[in-house]
Amino acid sequence: MTDIFKQIVSEIREAKHIVITSHKGPDGDSIGCSLGLYYFIKKLNRKVSVCHPDMAPEFLQWLHGSEEIFSFENDPQNVQHLLSEADLIFCLDYNSPERVGKEMSELLLAAKGKKVMIDHHPYPADFCQIVVSDTACCSTSQLIFELIDQSVNVDKLDENIGTPLYLGIMTDTGSFRFPSVTSRTHEVISTLLKAGVKHSDVHEKVYDSNTLDRLQLRGFAVAEKFEKIPGLPVALISLTKEELERFHYKKGDTEGLVNVALSVDGIKAAAFFVERDGEVKISFRSKGEYFVNELAMQHFSGGGHKYAAGGMSLDSLSDTIIRFKKLVPEFFS
Ligand code: 5GP
Ligand code: MN
Q: What pLDDT digit, counting tens, does each position of 80-118 carry?
């Protein structure tokens, strides 16, 4: 991988206009790897912008630089212009063009700039000239660290680069506890702390900054909407649009609820269904011998990792759940 990382850094040094993209529905890793790479490229004195399909939830908006991210949903003209003039385009934390949404994917595919994918999801599509696809790596943020380290630029690390990378690794590993964490992950974190990252600030801003509405929504979801599939180690939680409105839902409020369902004793696969923007968005999580990305891919127009995947449905919420329940015995028995 070292050679490809060195090649990417020489592409950065030669580029005039660089754009960093990531997937729709920003999470800690997509924001983290984007801003980590953004500040690294700035340190190399190149012109760079971050263009995301949509805005980050509030709990990820405190990061230095997040106010400089262009979002296609709010600012399509600027995103179109930046993509068309870019000579180097990074595709981070996703591996197929649809993940940036239909309209932005058309602009991305039409853009002339050389495309570089850096990602950790299985089954990469063929739309980038340079591809770093490491499905064993816990997060794209760790891969951005490897880019910096293996191209012998670790001396450039500072708090601006390190803090978003720490955030991305922390959120994609469930705070360093998923099987994807390795001794290398901890070495990376050690280097980030030496570079000045204030780890407890990051944890506090992400996990200890609840609104009461959010906590009450989550309490309601667990108390009233948790459902176990009889005879199988599978559970689900669903929330309707009305239920979200009752608790003054804000983007990010349901983040991680699916992991709460998975944390119940005896549950090995969990699904979370929510009515959002005229469709049903689904999150899947699993452990042990149960894999959820196949289910997401085959039946819910989605994909993801073995143990963390997502998808969507255009059926009603109740029809989507009925469909899921019919599929459960096939996938989880
Ligand atoms: P989440 O449940 O947190 O939204 O997503 C979990 C994982 O599934 C992430 O790695 C994400 O990239 C992937 N994922 C979520 N939604 C989709 C989707 O609609 N399509 C694909 N291909 N992957 C998704
Ligand atoms: Mn990721």
A: 999 999 999 999 999 999 999 999 999 999 999 999 999
Domains (range + CATH), the chain = 2-207 (3.90.1640.10), 212-332 (3.10.310.30)
Tell me the C-alpha distance between 32 and 38, whole Å.
10
Determine the atom of ligand 1 nearest the C-alpha atom of 293: 8
Distance 53 CA to ligand 2 centre (A): 16
Tokens found for residue 321: 């759940």
Which ligand approaches the C-alpha of residue 138 most closely? 2
DSSP string, 273-316: EEEETTEEEEEEEE-TT---HHHHHHHSS-EE-SSEEEEEESS-
Find all residues with CB under 8 Å of 167, minimum gap 6, and list them.
28, 31, 32, 60, 63, 141, 202, 206
3-class DSSP assignment, residue 222 = helix
Q: How far is CA 309 from CA 64, 126, 173, 315, 330, in A?
A: 29, 21, 14, 19, 17
